[in-house]
Amino acid sequence: MLCTLKTLKGGIYLLATYCPVMRGKVVVDTLSKLAKLASKMEKLQEFAFDTETNTLRVLAENKDFLCVGISISWGDNNNYYIPLNHRRYEDIHRNIKESKVRKYLGPIFAREDIRIIGQNLKFDMHVMARLKIFIRTKDLFDTMVASWLCDENSPNGLKENTQMVFGIDQTHFKEVTNDVPNSIKKEFGYKASQKVTFDLVLIDDGSPYAIDDSFYTWHLYLYYMDRLEEEKMDKIFYKFYMPFLSTLFRMEERGVCVDVEHLETMRTEINEDIDSLLYQMYDLAGVKFNPGSSQQLGELLFNYVPEKKLDKEPTYTSLLLENTFGLRPISKTASGAPQTNADALYKLSKMSYKRQYKRKQQGVELCKLLMDYKKLSKLKSAFIDGLFEQLYDDGKAHPSFNIIGTDSGRISCSNPNLQQLPKADEEDKYQIRSLFIGSEYLADEKGDYICDLKDATDEQIEMYEVKRKKIIAGDFSNLEMRVLAHFSEDKNLLEMFANGSDTHGSTAVNMFELDCTPEEVKKKYPHLRQAAKVINFLLMYGGGAFTLYTNLRDDRWSPIDLGDKSYLDTYGVKKGEDVAQIYIDKYFSTYSGVSNFIKNQKRFAHKHGYVYTLLRRKRRLPDIRSRDFKQVAYCERLSVNSAVQGSAADITGSSQNLVDKDPWYIEHGALMILQVHDELVFECPEKYVEECIAKTKDYMEHPFGKNVKLNLEMRADFDSGDSYQDAK
Q1: Helix-helix angle 526-540:576-590, to 10 degrees
Q2: Could you give phi then psi for residue 200, rounded to 5 degrees?
Q3: Which SS3 state, helix, strand or coil, does residue 615 take?
Q4: Cα R_g (the chain), whole angstroms
Q5: Which of 23, 156, 608, 627 is least enclosed, having the fewest CB within 10 Å?
Q6: At a CB cut-off of 8 Å and minimum separation 6, what does 124 contact?
Q7: What are phi and psi of 612, to 5 degrees?
């Protein structure tokens, strides 16, 4: 398919040379029409489809879920809409029963010799699974992923792509649902101001919108087939991303088992602890206040009132001002108000005042309480109350993994975001990861896996023992540093990994000239190992002297102020930034291969406008040729960051695909349920834990088989336990 550049509404877009025109469409609202459609589709080699639902919560059984309709397209003359659950009285008789759709279309969707196309296809696969229609083919084509691979810097939604590629403005969802009359909203229990779902849209009003979605998906498929080849992204699309889509689909379907009883207890206890903290803060302050209000905290902690407020209320005598602690602000916002964010509170909490400044010292104590309060409030809203809201009918969390969630190539996670679970030490009261446990299964007297409890018959339940699976977590060791060693071929880095040395300990020994081995640094100089960790990651991604200085100074766990007199005297310089530059020079002198790699990446990016990951996925950096120095510097950092982080994503995803392809895991009930950046999490029957670890370790340490040769071995470390917290 030829393409041309054409100007559209404020920009230059790459467009197809033709404009799709729909010449035929059918609303399949009788069984005879459905039978005729099924007969046509039996001979197809490929088709596009899309679904309309009343909810986005489709990843598992959900009593409120309705598939409202299915649209199917394979060309200008073949476009169909099958209504299933439109709820308005005048449409009820036109809906096709789900059982009939399953009977006629189920075998077609289950064919293994057909290509199935969709936009955000994984979502629609879940919808079909809720209808007990299962897609078996491995030949999938997701136009959203194809669009992203061809240009990750442009919008990848269907409507945006249709406009960008064909110059056509599709009707948007809200335009269809906004036309539902208030009388209908009232009839179905909605307020006049509320948005309604697609099931309240009339079939004749909604079918054109629905058919458009599958029709333009079909034409985007034709377009992106050629674009993928032009961009040389076709190989990674078909061999990596489409299998990865299926891998993530199965993980989402499985979900993660939640200890609901423990969650209930945790919610009760955290509410009590938050109330206790509020009482202590009010008692210390001498007045009630809103801990979430930066304005009230400014008044209470710093005696600060905005000038505008003083002008309007010259006699303003707030109780907060009367009870102020009179602390000096750490930093200020752009408007001049004192910062009350987590970083500012942390620094204030570390201050100390003499006895005569008792009120100021009380302010320091209040900052400590505020930090505890904000931490618990976040845990409560995001990970306790939030988790309750996200549970499906099976009592599990079914997180959604977004395959194009980041420009770097790492997947993102949502609803709930289990990639952001806070880590907890053993002494911490609220260990959120302890809420995630293995599913129940049936085992015989030898401990052999029979089946998951949810799939068992009554006869099997009587015959076998019910047990709960263990959780296994496998974590890549120093993945990004190993990727850096592969790319840079740095002699010292490769030697360090070959000898199994502590990565950050080795850097600490080299940077700070320590009198111990890298392995001894963790116990002897833990603060310098933490500093070395900051140096490793910051310099890997192009950080400069000022950034290194401030990052070391502001590190919460082990701050080091290179501007301290002892450092300045040792190196004979005037500023901490100068000391940081000395460390940078020493680092790149020690790891000269890394220095050369960074220079080469920047040079390549300037020449070509993009860089590659291990699997040859492009990361485009158009602004590297900008006249804006800051933009250029940012893109130069991305040229290194994208190659390293993107390759780490290649390695993790490839490992997942290998696991997903191995039938042993399903046969033994050992199921991959989470990916948390460099970590894979499984639930596994107790008898097979060691075997599962051995197999998975091999896949993680050899993610590409013979396809990609690495300059060093990957390493994965494992642990297991009754919960995700135990397997940390």
Answers
A1: 80
A2: -95, 0
A3: coil
A4: 29
A5: 627
A6: 49, 50, 51, 118
A7: -115, 155
